[in-house]
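TL;DR need structure tokens for one chain.
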Amino acid sequence: MARRKVGNPLAFAVLGSLSERPMHPYEISTSLRARGKDQSIKLNYGSLYSIVSSLEKHGFIEALETVREGNRPERTVYQLTDAGRTEFDDWLTELVGTPAREFHPLEAGLAYLLGLPPDRAVELLERRLVAVDDEIADTVTMHEKMTAIEFPRIFWVESEFRLALLRAESEYVHQLVDEIRSDRLDGSKFWRTAWKVYLEEGIGPAEQLKDPVKYFGQEFGWMQAMPPEAR
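>> reply
TL;DR here they are.
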């Protein structure tokens, strides 16, 4: 992914909003929320003005006019510059056409799943599933409502993508929980034994892995061939 002068995803949303028409920051924020775009791009109103300022500093947007509505403070309306339109087009092309390695929080947690006792891991994963499955149900309901009023899908395809990711996560985690609970997950014996030894004898992972055969049996002799830094 290209290194951008203003790389915050919210900056992309600001450029996208101004590609439609000139707006002031509050109007941009209101529009993003009204269209549900804050479900796809994190909208922090507190940082919006600093992002607008950065975009202006780098020549991507410029002040068009200052307006006042009733007794409200004056607001500066911004418009996209030619450089800003080029930046938006390039950024959009990159986001749609170029896959990028993303680091999912769950993936990071699973990388250290052995740090939890198996039963505790099941408990936490099931807690996560409740939230994920609730979001799936809410999203499906929202999609059904938009379909019922014949709201064109092109305006909410990003929500369909989010739903696909949620369903994939739910399916995987449901399967993982079942495999942990039933000890069908390859390595479950090692996992449970390591925690049993730690809780009953106070012997931690580092000491256990110095002599894996002693603690886990002959089938774990392969661990002795691993370099020390990998154990």
